[in-house]
DNA sequence: AATGGTCAAGTCAGC
DNA sequence: GCTGACTTGACCATT
């Protein structure tokens, strides 16, 4: 079991998701931004490794505008060495990597232009992981997409589009339940038709479900991951006490997390903490997991 | 140096 | 019809 956090480290003082405005786009600006982002990513990974944080979500902003028509810069060639070195570090440290394209990537959109742009953006994500030489246990997690007033039809559209994806994307793509549109059961249905692994989001499941037993869903979603996909990933968060239902907590709720660890037992999972204070909560979660080992 | 409007992109609930 | 939320704020013109 690895425990990690997404994208940003608030302790180090650098950011791996620097970007700039499209209006100020230039190759020089892009190249210097990418160089800075990769340099910071390496610092974060080393900081994590030193603290046994062995799961990390790499920001989608590592290469700004990578899939935008304005970007003709051959970043994968220009940063070949930097990407490969980062990948070497990741492998030697035993770190697990995920990425999570943002809300604009919608494979089941009825608008073919949206689908096309989404595929380009997924190809970029795959190229980052390929450039690092990561195996297929590194994943790209995506939600099903929009409902458009017809959930069944929208699931069918996701399945059809999945069949069109480049294998370089397909071997890394996993589908995740969201908090208001498609449940883990919907994702399992998609798995039946495509074979895509299901990344179970515990908090989203609490927000939207069909009354399924939590342990059962953890087991069923875990079964969709084959050996080449690695240990199943799960996303974990808890409700922010003041925000709307579905709002992520600022800080780990230790009681809730311990309860989750107990429910998880005896399944092995890599846990991504989607909590605002990032590495601070990850360090606490790792200490809690140590005190409450999975195998007795 | 601090601040507030704005930023490539989609969908949808809530007002 | 507009705004905010989403896995994650950061950029930049202006004061």
Structure description:
The protein is of the alpha/beta class and 296 residues long. The protein has eleven helices and eight strands. The chain has helices at 27-50, 75-78, 80-93, 112-131, 151-164, 167-170, 184-194, 202-207, 214-222, 254-264, 279-291; strands at residues 3-6, 55-57, 96-99, 139-143, 173-176, 198-201, 233-236, 270-273.
Keywords:
11 helices; globular; DNA-binding; alpha/beta; 296 residues
Short description:
By secondary structure, the protein is α/β, with parallel strands linked by helices.
How would you summarize the topology of this molecule?
Blueprint: E1 3-6, H1 27-50, E2 55-57, H2 75-78, H3 80-93, E3 96-99, H4 112-131, E4 139-143, H5 151-164, H6 167-170, E5 173-176, H7 184-194, E6 198-201, H8 202-207, H9 214-222, E7 233-236, H10 254-264, E8 270-273, H11 279-291
Parallel strand pairs: 1-2, 1-8, 2-3, 3-4, 4-5, 5-6, 6-7, 7-8
The protein binds a DNA duplex (15 and 15 nucleotides) through residues 6-8, 15, 17-24, 57, 59-61, 65, 67-68, 70, 100-106, 109, 111, 114, 117-118, 121, 141, 143, 145-148, 176, 178-181, 235, 237, 244, 246-248, 272, 274, 276, 278.
- The separation of the N and C termini measures 14 Å
Strands side by side in the biggest sheet: 1-2-3-4-5-6-7-8
Order of helices and strands: EHEHHEHEHHEHEHHEHEH
Point out poorly predicted stretches: none
- Residue share in helices? 40-55%
Largest sheet: 8 strands, parallel, barrel
């Amino acid at each position: 079991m690895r425990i990690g956090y997404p994208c940003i480290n608030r302790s180090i003082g650098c950011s791996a998701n620097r970007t700039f405005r499209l209006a100020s786009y230039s190759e020089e600006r892009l190249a210097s931004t990418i160089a800075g982002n990769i340099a910071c990513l390496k610092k974060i990974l080393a900081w994590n490794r030193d603290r046994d944080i062995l799961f990390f979500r790499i920001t989608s902003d590592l290469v700004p505008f990578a899939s935008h028509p304005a970007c003709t810069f051959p970043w994968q060639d220009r940063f070949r060495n930097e990407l490969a070195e980062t990948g070497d570090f990741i492998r030697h440290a035993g770190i697990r990597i995920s990425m999570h394209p943002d809300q604009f990537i919608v494979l089941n959109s009825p608008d073919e232009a949206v689908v096309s742009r989404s595929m380009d953006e997924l190809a970029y994500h795959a190229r980052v992981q390929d450039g690092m030489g990561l195996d297929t246990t590194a994943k790209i997690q995506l939600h099903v997409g929009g409902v458009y007033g017809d959930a069944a039809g929208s699931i069918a559209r996701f399945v059809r589009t999945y069949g069109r994806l480049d294998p370089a994307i397909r071997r890394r793509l996993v589908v995740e339940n969201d908090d208001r549109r498609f449940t883990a059961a919907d994702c399992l249905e998609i798995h039946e038709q495509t074979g895509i692994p299901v990344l179970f989001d515990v908090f989203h499941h609490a927000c939207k479900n069909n009354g399924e037993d939590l342990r059962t869903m953890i087991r069923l979603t875990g079964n969709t991951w084959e050996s080449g996909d690695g240990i199943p990933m799960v996303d974990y968060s808890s409700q922010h006490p003041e925000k709307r239902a579905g709002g992520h907590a600022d800080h780990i709720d230790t009681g809730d997390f311990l309860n989750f660890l107990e429910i998880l037992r005896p399944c092995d999972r890599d846990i991504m903490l989607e909590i605002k204070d990032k590495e601070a909560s990850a360090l606490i979660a790792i200490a809690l997991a140590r005190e409450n080992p999975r195998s007795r």
